Every structure is written in structure tokens, then in C-alpha cells.
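Worked example
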Amino acid sequence: MLVKDIIAAIEVYAPLVYQESYDNCGLQVGNLDDEVKGVLISLDVTEAILDEAIERGCNMIVSHHPLIFSGLKKISGRNYVERVVQRAIKNDISIYAAHTNLDNMYHGVNARIAQKLGLVNTSILAPKSTTISKLYAYAPAHSADAVRDALFVAGAGKIGLYSEASFNTKGIGTFRADATANPTIGTAGGEREWVDEVKIEVIVEKHNERSVLQALFASHPYEEVAYELIPLSNTNQQIGAGMIGTLVSPMEEVDFLAFLKQQMKTDCIRHTALKGKKITSVAVCGGSGSFLLGNAIQANADIFITGDFKYHQFFDAEGKIVIADIGHYESEQFTSEIFETILNEKFPNFAILLSNLSTNPVKYFC
């Protein structure tokens, strides 16, 4: 088992292309072709986590939060990040992180919170735009089926729960081959050709663009392939921040807060004033989600669950919603289970271990 094999399994589930611009996901320490003896999964990478990896015979750490967020100008052991990098290199331990790319997946961090709370009818709270494009490809009629099939195999034509979606228009294409060309139809240096062609239109998700274009070129009979790849402003309902869903049965606010505390294993919930109405619609965001408060209000959520709300941000609820701050670590602590599921399904007979340690830097005196 190689480092690149572990990474490939994770990135099929959470492609790096969907990480936020400020983030630094991916392989942070190590080499893609290094052999992996065991993987330790954690939320963060700390010195204690590195010690645990060494003690448990794991030479790769997979975490949610990146160890390195910004460039390191020096590695002299002045802080825990530099010390972990130094010791990881000395001990041949690879470190990989999947952070906001996993946050933005429909079946990612927020789906795991929704699952813990028993939410149904879930959807992305703030779907992303600019993550899908429209591909227009022009093929001779006798080759259109082969080209279309190749595009589907490469991942084109997926819209929500539907696959192999395309629109096809028959028409007449013209071209005149240069004397140095090698045309499939017609003669080099000959007259203008008139060819029955099919215009194939398919949706392409951002992470599939490269493979879809490779499939187009490989399957197309023409020396020069005519195509257009145009970014769309349509939102992608499978990619984005936060999640909203409903409870199977509405709950009184106090009862729901007690339920939330129990399910999310948190010692404390900071919240705004209760509204005196039952909780039905629930919005969630793992980590720091205050930027989604407006989306939660617009979606008519009764409560918004996240972490890291600042004092003055609580005022922004304005009596329209209940904000429940359960803590950053608490909202993301089950993320390790996602990595465990992905890797165990792909490599059922390999050593995939969950960390036994809590990396929460925040302590509560209750």
C-alpha cells in the first residue's frame, strides 16, 4: 500500500478541487510513493498525535485540519507545527489533510452531524456555483454514440441523482483540410467537406474536467476536435457549505438542546434566547459556521448549530432563529469516522486506526 493509494481513495470522495482558496489540503509531509504500514486518523495533528502514530506503528496520519495552513519559512522547532514536521520527517511519517473539500461534500462533515441528530430531507445549505461546466462536443454522426459513451464513462452527464444525461442536436458541419492535415473524412488540400454531425451537450463537474476532455480526445475520430467547455453559474446541489434538514418529530427547544448536548457529546452549549416554539427545521455547519447564519435564516431554519460564534455575532440572530454554538471540536469530532469508513471500504484488510486522543484545545469548567 502506497501513500498515493490512500490519497486516491479519499479524493474520490472529497476532490481537492473543492477546497476553499484559503485552505491547504493534501499531502503535507511525505512522498506519494512511500509505502504505508498503517494509517492513524485524527481531527488534528499535534505532537501527541505524532507520538501515538509512532507507538501504534502507523507511518501515515490522515487528519481533517491541516497541520500547515500557511508557508513555513523556517523549520527550527519554535512551535508545535515546526516540531511535528521535523519529527515526522525523521520518523518517515506522511501527513495528509482533507479539510474544506470534505466540508463541502454532500456526504461530508455536515452530513455526519445531520446523521447524529436524525435529520431527514437534508440538502446543502449554501450550494456552490462555478463548480460545473457545459461541454459542447461536435462529432460525425457515425461516431457520436462512441464519443457520448466515453464521456459518460469519464463522469460527464451527472445531474444530482441522474447520470448519462445529454442533449443531442443533428446538424451539418463544414471544414476544409489543409494540405498538411490528416483528415478522417475528405482529402488533405481538397474541397470543403459537408458532414452530418451531432452536437453533444453534457454537464461536467469541476473535478471531472480533465478526465472528460481526455476521454473526448481519445474517442473522437477527428484530428482536430471541435468542442467548447463553458463555466456555468448554476449552483451545484451536491457541493457547498452547511446542511439543513428536518426532525422526524418536532421537539420543544429545551428538549432539543438536551438532545443536542447528548448526541454531540458537548459539555456546554452557548445559545441565543429561545423563541418559545418547537424545533422542526435544523441547520448545521461543522467548525466555524457563523458566515452561514444569513443562509440559515433565509432557509427558515428554527435553529442553527455550529461553533466559534463571537459575542456580537449572537445579536445577528435578531429573534429570527436560535443560534446554538456547541464548539468547534465538538461539531467536527465525528469527522474521523468518515475517513475510517472510506478507507475500510477500500482497504478492508489494512491497518486503519482511529486516534484514542482528544485534540480539543478548549477545556470547560462547569
